[in-house]
Structure formats: C-alpha cells, structure tokens
Amino acid sequence: MLKLAGYLKPYIGIVIISLALLFTQAMCDLNLPNFMADIVNTGIQRMGVETLAPARMDGEAMALLLDVSPDENDKVIASSYTKSETETRIYILREDADIPALERAVTLAAQTLHVLSGNASETDAQALLSADVSDSARVQAALSEAEFTPDSVREQNAAALTRAVFVRAGGDADRAQMHFIYKSGGVMLLVSLLGVAAAIGVGFFSSRVSSAVARDLRRDLFKKVESFSNAEFDKFSTASLITRTTNDITQIQLVTTMAMRIMIYAPIMGIGGVVMVLSRSVSMTWTIVLSVGVLIAMIIVIFFIAMPKFKIIQKLIDKLNLVARENLTGVTVMRAFGSEEFEHARFDRANTELMKTSLFINRVMVFMMPMMMLIMNLTMLLVLWAGAGRINAGELMVGDVMAFLQYAMHIIMSFFIISVMFIMVPRASVAGDRVYEVLKEEPSIKDKSETESIREDMRGTVEFDHVSFKYGDAGQNVLSDITFTARPGRTTAIIGATGSGKTTLLNLIMRFYDATEGTVRVGGVDVRELSQSELRRDIGYVPQKGLLFSGTIESNLKYADENASKEDIERAIEVAQAAEFVYKKEGGILSPVAQGGSNVSGGQRQRLSIARAILRKASVYIFDDSFSALDFKTDARLRARLKSHVKDATVIIVAQRISTIMDADEILVLDEGRIVGAGRHEELMSSCGVYREIAASQLGMEAV
To answer: Which one of 44, 128, 492, 697 is most buried, by most CB atoms within 10 A?
Structure first.
C-alpha cells in the first residue's frame, strides 16, 4: 500500500482538510461527555451553582461565614466583598476577588455548618444558615472534621449554601439554574452539530479522494497493460489482470476511505479518551486497562488466525475469474463436447475453495462482534460498580462517572476499530502489492528516446536479416536464421506445419516481440529504431482470430481510421466481400456487434477484420491465416479484389491452405522455425519436399 502512496499527492490539500475536519470531529465527540457531566454535576446536583463563591449575600450570612472560618479564610471572605451602595446590609462580590481562594474558604465554611447543623440533608440549605455557632469549642471541632471531609461532599454542601445565600439576598436561584442548563445544553447541541458537520465533510472528502485514487490507479494500470508486449501478457494472465484492475483496486479504494475516516479517527479518540479519563479519575483507570488488555489479547489471537487466509484469497479470486472466463468464452466448445458436468465440477471446486476461505474469515469477524459487545457490557458493569463505590465514598460525582463510562466506551470502540483495520489493511496491502507489481513492470518493448522515421523510398519493404527468436528463457529457438525480403506490389506467403513459427514471424514484424538475434526492418529501418505507433500505423493487420469489439460494424471498422468517410467504409466492405451480409442487416453498417463479435459467424468476423485492415490504407498488409473460415468461392473473390485494391502495397499472408497462396509472388516454407523452401508454387513443387507433402495432403497425389 505504501508503494502506491504517491497517488495521494495530487489530493494532499483535500487530505489535510479531511484531517483537520477529523480532528475537529474527534474533539467535539471527546468534549460531549464533559458537557453532559457539567449538566448533571452543576445543573442538577449543584442546582445550577456554577461557582461556589456567592455573587451577593446579606450581612447575617457574611457574619455566619466569618464565625465558622479560620483567621486566614476570614480575611479572604472579608476582602472579597464590598457593601452595596443601594441595598442595605447586602454585600456584592468584588471584580478583583481571588475566586479560587474564596471558593475554598466558602467550601470549608459550608461543610463546618453542615456538621454543626447535625449533618442536615444536602438540599436543606436553611438548616445550614440556622446552625448554632455560639459554642466556639463546638465550632472548632466541626471545623476540624470538615477539613478531613472529601472534596466532592464539601462542594455539594457549599453549592447548597451558595444557593441559599443567593436566594436570601434576593436572587432568583431557579431561574439561574435553568439558565445554566439551557446554556450548557445549547453549547452541547452546537458542539454536536459541529461534530456532525465535520463527520459529513470527512465522509465527503474521503469518498472523493478514494474514488479519485481508484480512478487514477485504474487509468494507469490500463495504460500500463496497453503498453505491454506479448512477453508481459505471457507473465500476467488475462484473468489476473482483470482481478487486479477491478477487485484489487476496489480493496485499495475501500481501505483509503476507511483510513481517512476511521483509521486516524480511532487513535485520536483512544488517546483522547485516555487523557480525559485520567483527568476525571485516576483511581478508576484500572477498569479501562483491564478491558483494553483483554481486547488486545483477542485482537492478537484473531490476527494470527486470519492473516494467512487474507494472503491467499486474492489468488483464489484470480483462479475463479480464470475458470469463469474460460467457461464463458468457450461455452460453444463445452456444449459441443458435452463437458458441462466436468466444467461445472471444475468451477465448483474453485468456487468452493474461495467460499471456504471467505467463510473462515467471516466467521472470525462474526466472532469478534459478540466478543466486543461482551467486553463493552462487562466494562460498563465494572465502571458502574467501581463508580458507585467512589460516589458513595464522596470521591466522585454522578456526572463524573457518567462521563467516565462514555470515555471508556470511546476507548474500547477505538481499539475495536483498530483491530478491524488490522484485518482489512493486510488484504488491501496484498491487493496493493499486486497492483504495484503490474505498474512497476517495465515493458520489454518500448520506444527509444530518439526514434527514426520510415524511409519514403523504402516504404512497404519488410526485411528479415538472419533473424532468430526464442521465448523468454527457453533453451530452443522458435525461429532460426530467417532471411527474406517482402517488397511493395508483391505478395509474400508463408506456409508450414502447425507450430513451425508462422505467427511468431508476423509478431516480429508488428514488434509484439523483439528478435533475439538479427534484424527486422520495415521501410528500410530497424523496427527497434521506429516508434511503435509509426510502425503499426503503416501496417494493416488481420490477426489469426478475427476479434471484434462491442459497438457497431462502423465503430469496429473505424478502429483503423476514425476519420474514414462513409465511401471508404463501403469500399472496404465491398473488397472484403462483406457487403452481402452487412447490408442485409436492418441497420447496415450501424448494426450492433456483440462483445467479441459473438453475434456474427466466424467467416463474417474474418471478413470484417479484413475490411478493417483495408480501411487502414497501409503500406504493408499482414494476413495471419485470415481466410481459413471462408469458403473457396468467397476466398477466391476476396483475394482477386484484394490484389487489385492493394496492388502497390506489400502483402504478407500466412495460410494453411495451398489454394490461398498458389498465386503468391513468393512462398516461404517454414519447418521447425527454419525456411526450408522459397519460391513460387511451381518451383516449390519440384524443389521442396515439405511443400510437396502439404500440397499432397490438401490437393491429392494427382496434383503432385
């Protein structure tokens, strides 16, 4: 996957924006439990008292606080208030007051009054204000007890006292409480909406980036495959290339989306959750450590169980695609030989093997979800049990436990998401390696930085100068010491037994392969010195198998020349003897052609392929056994028209039938990769034993 990271470079700006939005979403999600805790702790338990320092109090309350406070706290309280200029015996909180010090003083005083009032209910604020402070010894004992009381208990009593003091001084406590709840709830709603907007933005941008990366990968992969020579196609099967272009890139696209949306989000939430948990209660972190430890152990076990399967599943998809493709393209042969049951069994084996591997992985994933839910539920129970004890001991407030519980869920979910990514990323990594393997493959045939041009005085001339060729690391040559020249205005035919190297020889002219030894020249220039586009632009090629593309007859013919006029197309159809069936179709040249030309016969495919080559108006025409599906009458008419139409071009014909090449200007006889005879038909009949054997097998002994 990292080898393909360069494909993110054009979209780095969008990625950065997505990361910023992702961080914003995480911060919003991490702060929501804090707002909830504030609403519960302050808005409900503290009855809306935001600060434990009363904003205003009457003289009696002031005197009461001073009576139960140590000397240092007396000074803090007295210096923090000033008399109201408009209201008698009302004290107003000074703007320059030391609020933290004042809150500590008020909290201690409130707890002292709570002890003096006989531990009155937290909500019975009037009891605190009515406490008897006349006995200094009793006050001192209550103060000593208050100093050792947990902070959360003291703060709760201080909130009740502050609220009572505020009410007695003429304030509206209920209104202040609702104001705090509405304000906190409004902020919480805005933060939630911001988080939702950020999540939508991340989803939008991640989808755009992953789709664009997948598009670029498919484009480059297809472009790379188009540049491959036959040698590269021998290395990568068609089924494998299809899988890499579709399934593998889809895996990369999916993980790219997940990475931008979840893979980065999960660690932020996990780390942020830990920080928030530590800020709430260090004493309860053991519950998180225990849960995460169990979860990590489960992830490690699953990782080592599932990982080997992910490494082979893509190869199994390749295998299934190969079998399916062979069955679909060879369905006619399969039916003709009655091998449906055999092919069904063959497909079923590949399909079952893939199914078993997929089922194994899916079962592992299915096992993860209930285990994950079990861990989450047990963690909830553990946190509530531990939190209840802390609340009972006065060490935590209810809102803190609720926030802790949510952070615990965030942390566990983050680890769960990370575990899922650990399983998805290896499969995508395998897919990425397979795609990169194709992208990094250098075509064995490529243009030089500086190329030559075909010589006009030699245009159409094809020369083989002591050419030999072998496939890859094969020890034996397919062609050996081939030397001949095909000239404009002449027809050169090549004949030989199956496997003698006829098609390979033509592939060297087209430069689908490069000669191992010797030189192939077209237009007086070594084909390796020409650009492939110029070389093939000067050649009209009809392959051994007439291949048509989905579209129309016209679109197939225009593969040769997209600017061809209607008259040129009609002339090519007439020369190729295709008019008799083309114009009988309802749409004429606009009649549809199915994929591979499956809706026309073999002979019709060959004639349309020949018409396509003729439309090229090339200097060299190559026919690789392109008349084999034609009857003798159509074959004769086509060759007669072809001879007059391309009389100034070089024509090279590979054929199995003697009747197709009898009128050729020169016939080359190949046997086991060597030219064993060259000349006209009559000459070869008297001088070449291999040719005589072929003629005898086709024309009968009397022709010999």
So the answer is: 128
Copy the structure tokens of residue 365: 């994933």
pLDDT of residue 280: 65
* Of residues 475 and 563, more confidently modeled: 563
Long-range contacts of 123-130 (CB under 8 A, 24+ apart): 123/47, 123/160, 124/160, 125/160, 125/161, 125/163, 125/164, 125/167, 126/164, 128/157, 128/160, 128/161, 128/164, 129/60, 129/61, 129/64, 129/161, 129/164, 129/165, 129/168
Q: Which two tokens stand for residue 2?
A: 């990292």
- Taking the C-alpha atoms of residue 582 and residue 576, their distance in angstroms, rounded to an integer, is 11
Q: Hey, what amino acid is at 586?
A: E
Burial class (CB within 10 angstroms; exposed 0-12, middle 13-18, buried 19+) of 264:
middle
User: What domains sit in the chain, N to C, each tagged with a CATH number?
Assistant: 55-168 (no CATH), 227-439 (1.20.1560.10), 547-617 (3.40.50.300)
- Residue type at 54 in one-letter notation: P
* Higher-confidence position of 156 and 647: 647
Length of the chain counted residue by residue: 704
| Burial status of residue 476 (CB atoms within 10 A of its CB: 0-12, 13-18, 19 or more) | exposed
> What is the per-residue pLDDT across 382-410, written as a single tens digit (0 to 9) for each?
878 877 777 766 666 777 778 788 888 88
Q: Whose structure tokens read 């999916």?
A: 254
CA dihedral sign, ordered 639, 669, 512, 551: positive
Whole-number Å distance between alpha carbons of 651 and 432: 46
Going by pLDDT thresholds of 50, 70 and 90, the confidence category of residue 127 is low
Higher-scoring residue by pLDDT: 112, 186: 186
pLDDT of the residue at 283:
67
Query: What token pair was written down for 89?
Result: 């015996």
Say how many Å lie between the first and final Cα of the chain, rounded: 66
**pLDDT on residue 492:** 94
Q: What are phi and psi of 512, to 5 degrees?
A: -75, -25
Closest to 491 (Cα-Cα) out of 631, 302, 644: 644
Contact between 65 and 102 (Cβ < 8 Å) = no
